[in-house]
Amino acid sequence: DIQMTQSPTTLSASIGDRVTITCRASQSISGWLAWYQQKPGKAPKLLIYRVSSLERGVPSRFSGSGSGTEFTLTISSLQPDDFATYYCQQYNRWYTFGQGTKLEIK
Amino acid sequence: DVQLVESGGGLVKPGGSLRLSCAASGFTFSHGWMNWVRQTPEKGLEWVGRSKSKTDGGTLDYAAFVKGRFIISRDDLKSTLYLQMDSLRSEDTAVYFCTTDLGRPWGSMDVWGQGTMVIVSS
Description:
The structure holds two protein chains of two kinds. By secondary structure, chain A is mainly β. Chain A is 0% helix and 50% strand. The mean pLDDT of chain B is 97. In chain B, strands 2, 4, 5, 6, 9, 10 and 11 form a seven-stranded mixed β-sheet that branches. Chain B is built from no helices and eleven strands. By secondary structure, chain B is an all-beta fold. The chains are: A mainly beta, B mainly beta. At the A-B interface, β5 and β10 of A face β5 and β10 of B.
């Protein structure tokens, strides 16, 4: 099975900060990577697919990059609505999620 | 609007059965690959299984931990996805989500339902 490891597990930041979350796959996933945002009591919401493609309606302050086994999600300027938990997911072979990164207000 | 609405969750005893439903609207259900994903605080998000569209072969695939206990089916005329869960164990306690790729070619889980809670306990 392909394992997905996110870092950090928790991230404290302030409004306006630029933040980066990293996701590492245990083997190459050929660019089949997505990022999701989840708020308490809600379902995950797709932000980015295919490493760097922004889902419709998602603000442009979100961006994704990476290749091979290392990927990042960047939020260029944190807004109040962005405090949530973020998950990466590989869908190269079946589907595996990272353990999540909780983004908290500093 | 695209919508997925799960139902059928509840409390069931170990060894029991439950059937979850996921009613879809706002997109061409028959074109979509549909998944079941579950979430627990301990294990996080776990893929349970997938139903491909008939045009893509209609294949059903399952996570290893299902081990023949769960069966996914779909009714394209009713735009509904099902998850029949038998021989339930305490570790199956989770929120179960259905998801779809909307038939788009990049394979991510583009839309999620609100989830339905399954509790397996005596």
